[in-house]
Amino acid sequence: MTEMLRVSDLHSFYGESHILHGVDFVVERGELVTLLGRNGAGRTTTLKSILGLVDRRSGSIVLNGREVIDLAPHRIARLGVGWCPEERGIFASLSAEENLLLLPEFSSEGMSVEEIYRMFPNLYERRKSPGMRLSGGEQQMLAMARILRTGARLLLLDEITEGLAPVIVQALGRVVRKLKELGYTIVMVEQNFRFAAPLADRHHVLENGRIVQTVGKDELQAKQGLLHQYLGV
C-alpha cells in the first residue's frame, strides 16, 4: 500500500457555517503536497478536518488504510499524525527543552532529542530558555521539533514561514527537504509560494472550500499564469 492519506468528498462545518464543500485529494507515502489559496479558501480547515478539529465533518478520511472520519482527534493523532498549527502553541513559562519533552511518544519511530538537536541546532543552544524568550523562528522550529518526537509520520504543517526572516525561511526549507528525504509524508498549507514550489510534489489550489486546480511539480512552468490567476503570485 502506497497511500498514506485519502480524503474523499470532505465537508466540514464550524457551527452552521459550511466551510469545505467536497474536498478530494490523495497523498502517497513520502510525498509532500501543498494546499494553496487565498485567505478563507479552506486550507487550514482542511488540515483541522483531517484531525477532527472542526464542529462537524462528513465524507471519508482514510489514513494508512483505515477510515478515521468518526474517530476523536486524540485517537487520530495516535495513528501517527502530527499537527504544527499556525499559532505554534509554545508554553511561555516552560523552557524550550521542557516544551520539546511535553508531548508523549506514540511510537518508537519518533526522533530522539539528540537527533532533533542535530536537525535544529538553534534549539540546542536555546534549550534552557523559556518559551517567551524564543524568537518567532525559534518558536516555529520548536513547534515542528515537538511533533517529530511523537513518532508521527504524517505531518500537517500550517503556514510555517509566516512572518519569519528570510534566513529562517531558508533554514526551514532545508529541514522540510530533509524530512522528505527521511520518508515523512507532509501536507503543507503555505502562503509563500516561492518557499513551497521547489519542495512539493503536487499543489492543490483551494477556492471557496473546493479544490479547483491540481498542479504537479512538472507542470509548474506551464501553469504559472493559471496559478497567478488563483493566487496572485
Describe the structure.
It is a single chain. With 233 residues, the chain is α/β, with parallel strands linked by helices. The protein has one domain (31-44, 72-231): Rossmann fold, CATH 3.40.50. It contains 9 helices and 10 strands. Helix 7 links the parallel strand 7 and strand 8. Helix 3 runs parallel beside helix 6 (136-149).
Count of discrete structural domains: 1
Distance between the termini: 36 Å
What would CATH call the class?
Alpha Beta
Give the overall silhouette: globular
Count the E strands: 10
CATH-scheme architecture: 3-Layer(aba) Sandwich
In CATH, the homologous superfamily goes by the name P-loop containing nucleotide triphosphate hydrolases
**Strand percentage, roughly?**
25-35%
Low-confidence stretches: none
Largest sheet: 6 strands, mixed
Average residue-wise pLDDT: 94
Major sheet: arrangement of strands: 6-7-8-3-9-10
CATH fold-level topology: Rossmann fold
So how many helices? 9
Radius of gyration (CA) equals 17 Å
Multimer state = single chain
The run of helices and strands is EEEHEEHEHHHHEHEHEEH
List the helices and strands and how they pair.
Blueprint: E1 3-14, E2 17-28, E3 32-36, H1 43-51, E4 56-63, E5 66-67, H2 73-77, E6 81-84, H3 96-102, H4 113-119, H5 121-125, H6 136-149, E7 154-158, H7 166-181, E8 185-189, H8 193-196, E9 202-207, E10 210-216, H9 224-231
